[in-house]
Design a protein that fits this description.
Helices cover 40% and strands 24% of the residues. It has 121 residues and is an alpha/beta fold. The longest helix has 17 residues. The radius of gyration is 13 Å and the shape is globular. 26% of the residues are buried. The model has no long low-confidence stretch (mean pLDDT 90).
Length: 121
């Protein structure tokens, strides 16, 4: 059975921290979908298409990474990809509180998809 994870984010711009989480996820899961989302509460520096292209460039040597974008709920995207996990990076304790809110909602929508928190070096 293939283990599939989704690593979502706005990635505006992509950082070494993002890349670290993506690489670490790629070492754990057979397939990782990096999903570029448009956060309406942020004013983006780059378009979604530009962010996808930047991510494709920096992950081109990681064979089990696919970069895509999606509209709508993250949990619906994860279901479409048959993912069993969502990967989230944590920089500080304050991130954990924010991330737990989204995790709780996702858990209600589909309890079969787990969220994995990875510390951001």
């Amino acid at each position: 059975m293939t283990s599939i994870a989704v690593c979502p984010g706005s990635f505006d711009p992509v950082t070494y921290g993002h890349l670290d989480i993506i690489k670490r996820g790629a070492n754990i899961f057979d397939q990782v979908y990096v999903c570029v989302l448009n956060n309406s509460s942020k004013k983006p520096l780059f378009s979604v298409e530009e962010r996808c292209e930047l991510l494709r460039e920096v992950t081109k040597d990681i064979p089990n990474i696919t970069v895509e974008t999606s509209q709508g709920l993250l949990i619906d995207y994860a279901k479409r990809k048959n993912a069993k996990a969502i990967l989230r990076g944590l920089r500080a304790v304050s991130d954990f509180e924010y991330e737990m809110q989204g995790t709780s909602v996702n858990r209600v929508l589909d309890e079969s998809i787990e969220t994995f928190f990875i510390d951001d070096k």
